[in-house]
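Researcher: Please predict.
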Amino acid sequence: MTQIINNQSNYQKLPTIVKTLIDNNPLYQENLDRQAMIENINNTFNPVAVPDVNSISEEELTKRIKRILSLHLVSGMLNDFTPEQMQMFDESVKRGG
C-alpha cells in the first residue's frame, strides 16, 4: 500500500512539471496542446508501466519530460513539411547533418 501512495505522490508531480515546461517555452506554448501533453506524460509514466517512477528524482523526471515534449514538438513540425521538404530532411538526416 505504501508503494502505491509513493507512486501517486510522484505521479501527481507530472502535470505540474509539464505545465511549467510549457509555460516557460514559447515554442511549446505555440505548438503543443497542454492537456494532451499532460495526458500523454501521465500515460507514459503510469505507475503500472513504470513501477519505479517514485525513485526517479524530480530533476531527472523533468529532463525526461522535456525530451518527450521536444520529440512531440519536432514530430508536429515534420507534419507541416511538403514532400520536397521531407525528402530534403530525410537526406540531411542520412548524411548526419
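Model: The radius of gyration is 16 Å.
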